UniProtKB/TrEMBL annotation, chain A:
Domain UBC core, residue spans: 15-161
Lineage top rank: taxon: Eukaryota
Keyword Cytoplasm: no
GO molecular function: ATP binding; ubiquitin conjugating enzyme activity
Protein's UniProt name: E2 ubiquitin-conjugating enzyme
Active site: C99
UniProtKB/TrEMBL annotation, chain B:
Annotated SP-RING-type domain residues: 369-452
Family assignment from sequence similarity: Belongs to the PIAS family.
Keyword match Lipid biosynthesis: no
Domain of life: Eukaryota
Subcellular locations according to the entry: Nucleus
Protein name: E3 SUMO-protein ligase SIZ1
Organism this protein belongs to: Prunus yedoensis var. nudiflora
GO BP term, example: protein sumoylation
An annotated Gene Ontology molecular function: zinc ion binding
Length: 161, 796
């Protein structure tokens, strides 16, 4: 898995734990359409199955998202990556890293795992072409030591896809 | 100097930013060249042009425009904006410009200068710290460092805080006790003596960082600073106490997030020769907008007497380093700093915000209002869960400057910020400081009421007037809630129920309650535009029966005459001669009894009769009559009248006045109460013109304490104030929308009220999760007013 660093993170704080339990309950009652939470006993790492929305380039395709929650969630954004193979998308690197502002600079503690999922699905759905980002190879090489995408300085430039 | 000339002179100093600010406050377009903007403001000051471009001239008078210009001008000067000499032009030497600090602030006779450069002379343009207790002046060229080099004038930040004040806001869990080392800038050093050391340093950096980023960092200059600071024996004694510490801190000058620490890339901090870890992020990683650095505690590395501190970094930006003695605050101590509920914000302001967010949006842009209808919900669902904890809020906190109504759980928020040091609104993501945190007086009353509810109960329904009740899935669930299942008035006092006996003195209270808590008999009012472009109201049949009953009971002795104004010029209600309700309103008003659903309608819950419904037998002439609307009938267009209800805030928000006051006045003269609803203005106005729907009633025809609202000449508030039993008047100002009510009734053309006092780009954020997007920019949304109006009439 790409993010070895996340696994060794500190345990969740009490607030984070409570909050995640609430999110999980909420998810079970009202899961976002197209997503399935794979049940584990690990509250800190969620693995979520994504089904490409019908009528989009990713229809009938299934991917897996890995969401790692930091100690001080939700003040800090979770680390969200696709477990390779990642979908071919102009903002998704082959190592699964996602260039999406809400995962980094625009994260708000008011967001939830569920709202992230919806954003990612919307990002997939609005794609018009299946291709990797232009700098994919360079970026992936730089990350080969298991660097977290949260350590990347992302440059969000495209608001269309 | 006359108004226009003095404003013109001031406007000449304005930059685009100030011009836009002024235009925003005047709800005018900000498009165009600079000169266009200036002209637009100046045009307001010359009467003849007003009506052309700005149809609601009653909203803001010339004096107000002038005042606004004056205020902005003053603010600009205080913040140290350069003088006329340099405005707009590229004058590279800004040091020619003198600031007029002394003149601007008569209370501040001596100017404190404290600058990173150490000089105390006012040799160049200066900028003053915004903090009222600090107010030091600093050299602009020392502290204002733009991201990119600019020619000419330095961009002046809206609110400038000196680095000390920024520091004290960066983490309120630390209180500064003293500064052993005042902030000093890091310098790019080229001196030969340091050369060797720097190259060593670079070498060290190269080893520790990844190659790709070190290449980048090498393009950045190496910055360094080496200083000594002194700790006395007394300091050391102080520091032996657990809650005291020595902290090294570093800040980026002109950081876009003002209240945070930030260390340079590859920061290498040493205290007395010992390396101290300054940051947790990798050296190559820049601090994102969401990131916060901390100031490391260096107490263990310090000793009595002289201490040495050095910082090196590879960064192109300019930082300052300082050392301070701090005292740790506990969570409770920080919470205690937050003002009490009653001190943070007036309840009325909080309520006005809620009403604005729930009741409709900003009419920012009338051009967008091409649709004839807006969907308006009767109530809004508001989720009381804290966005951070996911649990229902115990104490509802908010940042005072935020416009949205979303709150967060105060304790959870503060506790989380103990670690994250963010002080960022989780809803709108604006950065603030602890000093901006307040308790929301509106929502806190609600969350306190619900304190003992089950955790799963977290949603409430809020009406546009601010009254609320707990939202339940079923009626049985509602019954289980007991009192909490009922409607509450905006101030979170329980709204009386229908079953309660109504003593005479409380009639108005009853009225008020009906106006507010119409939860029981939801009657549908459908409104649509017919082919002639005339609005039609329709209502289901059952409305009258229930409402009639209600009307007759409380008002047995006080007959009410409600005269609806027909839109036809004949205006049968005009002389007040006719008890019968004006049914033949020229066809503009069709009170049909077909159901409202098929008329792509608003469903407005109105639970009592419309005065103008012919089926209402109680609407007979009495000693109190209510004149709904008037205007000079010259303006009346007999047919094809298009109107859109103007939001009438006097109506909508009046109800929440303290019930006692109303009841009292009512007790003195029960008959009066009939008039006690200053909400009768069903005004109209399409985008271009105000076309009165109904002819006026001459005031003279009032035989009793009737209210004539909105006569063609009078200002609404004036009219109200003149009333003898004016307990309701207070609400006019209370609701904070006085301006809006004035607007509502210009004798000239009217546009649906736009952005006066409300802006709610944020309104769908946060707590509001009503799926109906209340397009904030469509004035026709404000059909609520007619809703209110009708409700009021019915309450007589």
């Amino acid at each position: 898995m790409t993010s070895s660093s996340a696994a060794s993170r500190k345990a969740l704080s009490k607030i984070a734990c409570n909050r995640l339990q609430k999110e999980l309950v909420e998810w079970q009652v009202n899961p976002p359409a197209g997503f399935k939470h794979k049940v584990t006993d690990n509250l800190q790492r969620w693995v979520i199955e994504v089904n490409g929305a019908s009528g989009t380039l990713y229809a009938n395709e299934t991917y897996q998202l890995q969401v790692d929650f930091p100690e001080h969630y939700p003040m800090e954004a979770p680390q969200v990556i696709f477990i390779p193979p990642a979908p071919l998308h102009p903002h998704i690197y082959s190592n699964g890293h996602i260039c999406l502002d809400i995962l980094y600079d625009s994260w708000s503690p008011a967001m939830t795992a569920s709202s992230i999922c919806i954003s990612i699905l919307s990002m997939l759905s609005s794609s018009t072409v299946k291709q990797r980002p232009a700098d994919n190879d360079r970026y992936v090489k730089n990350c080969r030591n298991g660097r977290s995408p949260k350590e990347t300085r992302w440059w969000f430039h495209d608001d269309k896809v | 100097m006359d108004l226009v000339a003095s404003c013109k002179e001031k406007l000449a100093y304005f930059r685009i930013k100030e011009l836009k600010d002024v235009l925003t406050q005047l709800s005018l377009s900000k498009q165009g060249k600079k000169q266009d903007l200036v002209d637009r403001i100046l045009a307001l000051l010359s009467e003849d042009q007003v009506s052309k471009m700005w149809p609601k001239k009653n909203t803001v008078r010339k004096e107000q425009v002038a005042e606004l210009v004056d205020d902005t001008y003053r603010k600009m000067q205080i913040s140290g904006a350069p003088d006329l000499a340099s405005k707009g032009q590229c004058i590279s030497d800004s040091s020619n410009v003198k600031i007029k600090g002394e003149i601007e602030d008569p209370f501040q006779s001596d100017i404190k200068v404290r600058c990173l450069c150490g000089r105390l002379l006012e040799t160049e343009s200066m900028i003053k710290c915004e903090d009222p207790r600090c107010q030091v002046w600093q050299h602009m060229s020392c502290v204002i460092i733009p991201e990119k080099p600019v020619e000419g004038n330095l961009p002046v930040p809206e609110l400038f805080y000196c680095e000390m004040c920024r520091l004290s806001r960066a983490d309120p869990f630390w209180v500064t006790i003293q500064h052993p080392l005042h902030p000093v800038k890091l310098n790019v050093t080229n001196s030969p003596t340091d050369g060797e050391w720097i190259s060593l340093c670079i070498d060290f950096k190269l080893r520790i960082c990844e190659v790709h980023s070190s290449l980048f960092s090498l393009s950045n200059p190496v910055q360094t600073v080496e200083k000594t600071f002194h700790l006395t024996r007394a300091d050391k004694d102080l520091l032996s106490k657990q809650e005291y510490d020595v902290q090294a801190w570093c800040m980026l000058l002109n950081d876009k997030v003002a209240f945070r620490m930030q260390w340079p890339q590859y920061a290498d901090l040493q205290v007395n020769g010992m390396p101290v870890r300054a940051i947790n992020r990798p050296g190559s990683q820049l601090l994102g907008a969401n990131g916060r650095d901390d100031g490391p505690i260096i107490t263990p590395y310090t000793k009595d007497g002289i201490n040495k501190i050095s910082l090196t970094g590879c960064d192109a930006r300019i930082f300052c380093l300082g050392v301070r003695i701090v005292k740790r605050r506990t969570l409770q101590q920080v919470l205690n700093v937050i003002p009490k509920e009653s001190d943070g914000e007036r309840f009325e302001d909080a309520l006005a915000r809620v009403c604005r967010c729930v009741g409709g949006g900003t009419a920012m842009d009338n051009d967008d209002s091409d649709s004839d209808l807006e969907v308006v919900a009767d109530s809004f669902t508001v989720n009381l869960r804290c966005p951070m904890s996911g649990s229902r809020m115990k104490v509802a906190g908010r940042f005072k400057p935020c416009l949205h109504m979303g709150c967060f759980d105060l304790e959870v928020f503060v506790e989380m910020n103990q670690r994250s040091r963010k002080w960022q609104c989780p809803i709108c993501l604006k950065n603030y400081a602890l000093e901006n945190v307040i308790i929301d007086p509106y929502f806190n009353r609600i969350t306190s009421k619900m304190r003992y509810c089950g955790e799963d109960v977290a949603e409430i329904e809020v009406k546009p007037d601010g009254s609320w009740r707990v939202k339940t899935k079923s009626e049985s669930e509602r019954r289980d809630l007991g009192e909490l299942g009922r409607w509450y008035l905006p101030d979170s006092t329980l709204a009386p129920t229908d079953e309660e006996i109504i003593p005479k003195t409380e009639v108005l209270k009853q009225v008020k309650q009906e106006g507010v808590s119409e939860g029981h008999t939801g009657l549908k009012l459908g409104i649509r535009k017919n082919r002639n472009g005339v609005w039609e109201f329709s209502k289901p049949e059952d409305m009258n029966t229930s409402s009639d009953n209600r009307l007759q009971v409380p008002f047995g002795d006080h007959e009410v005459k409600v005269i609806p104004m027909s839109s036809s010029a004949t205006g049968s209600g005009r002389d007040g001669e006719d008890a019968s309700v004006n049914q033949d309103g020229g066809g503009n008003f069709d009170f049909s009894t077909n159901n409202g659903i098929e008329m792509d309608s608003f469903s407005l819950n109105v639970d009592s009769a419309y005065g103008f419904s012919g089926q209402n037998p109680s609407a007979t002439v009495g000693d109190a009559e209510v004149i709904v609307l008037s205007d000079s009938d010259d303006d009346i267009m007999p047919s094809g009248t298009i109107y859109r209800s103007e939001r009438n805030d006097t109506g909508g928000i009046n109800f929440p006045v303290a019930p006692s006051g109303i009841a009292d006045s009512y007790g003195e003269d029960p008959t009066l109460g009939t008039g006690g609803n200053p909400c009768l203005g069903l005004f109209s106005g399409n985008d271009d013109d105000f076309i009165p729907l109904w002819p006026p009633l001459a005031p003279g025809t009032q035989s009793g304490p009737g209210f004539q609202l909105f006569s063609s000449e009078a200002d609404v508030p004036d009219t109200l104030v003149g009333l003898p039993h004016g307990s309701i008047n207070c609400s006019t100002s209370m609701n904070g929308y006085t301006l809006a009510s004035e607007t509502a009734m210009g004798s000239a053309t009217l546009v649906p009220d736009s952005s006066v006092g409300r802006s709610d780009a944020d309104m769908n954020d946060g707590l509001v999760d009503n799926p109906l997007a209340f397009a904030g920019d469509d004035p026709s949304l404000q059909i609520f007013s007619s809703h209110e109006t009708i409700r009021c009439i019915s309450a007589f």
